[in-house]
Amino acid sequence: MSGKQRLASSRTAEAEDKASILTLIRQSMRTLPPTARRIADYIDKHANDVIRMSITELAEQAEASEGSIVGLCRRLGIDGFQELKILLSRDLVDPVRLIQEDLRETDSVADVAEHVFAAHIASLQQTRQLLAMPALTKAVEIIRSARRLEVYGIGSSGPIAQDLAYRLLQLGRDAKVVSDSHIQAVSAAMTDSSTAVITISHSGSTTETVLATRLARDAGARTIGITRMGKSPLARYCDIVLHTIANETRYRPEAMSSRVAQLALIDTLVSCCALADAGRSVAKLELSARIIAGKRF
After folding, report:
1. C-alpha span between 81 and 87 (Å, rounded)
2. In sequence order, what are the residues at sequence separation of 6 or more whose Cβ sits closer than 8 angstroms to the Cβ of residue 136?
3. Which of 27, 96, 215, 236 maximizes the CB count within 10 A of its CB?
């Protein structure tokens, strides 16, 4: 085979690999059982909306269960709902927008900086407007009354969870972050009513953190979720949910600007907890500062 023939063959294979997921859904429609067909029909007719949904929201709209949605995905040969959204995005969205919501391929460095900073500012403003003071107040009460605190986060939520646990530790609280999925599950099952669990998940659909939160709640722990606006599997197992908003929810499976909103939210939580017992908090923070000072030149 000549070089040109090999190149043509490679491009043909690539084109087949990138076949439209919507085309696959339409071709499969007739052979699907009733519930799967109803889900597929909803996805076909509302594909742009589905990109923005959680699996819980799609289940509600399609009048089906989350398990049925996962089953449909497997029938289509894909791993799950998040992969389905990525494939739908590939069909419907300019690929560059998967990098960041507002970018265009022709953007200059200055344009990129403007778009990214604007997205972060918008995420902060919208999250602040959305923040429910009763929920925030209750979350602070749960954290303050707990004897032990565990913070769960995986992937891009992991560093946010680690920062929250460290900030609480600086206040003298018995707080630890658990970011390994196996340890999360075991640790969650070992909690009790004296424990508060804070789960951070942008999507609210990460199976490992949802499982750990469910196990913790079943064990008697109080549970707080920090996640995107909208219904999600995580919210089902949380006593209190604090929402963040970010445009990346539309197309990206991983967080970008929502991280800034999450950081602002955990800073608010920690500051409220510190002010509730200002004298003790200041003493603990001064102690932490002295310890850290000894590690700097």
Report:
1. 10
2. 242, 268, 269, 272
3. 215
pLDDT bucket at 5, cuts 50 / 70 / 90:
very low
Distance separating alpha carbons of residues 262 and 127, to the nearest angstrom: 9
Q: Indicate the pLDDT class of residue 86, thresholds 50, 70 and 90.
A: confident
pLDDT recorded at residue 103: 67
What's the CA gap between 52 and 64, in Å, rounded? 18
Residue type, 202: H
Q: Phi and psi (nearest 5°) for 107? A: -65, 140
Q: What is the mean pLDDT of the chain?
A: 86
- pLDDT by residue (tens digit) across 140-156? 999 999 999 999 999 88
The region that residue 27 occupies, defined by phi over 0 for left and psi between -120 and 50 for alpha, beta otherwise, is alpha
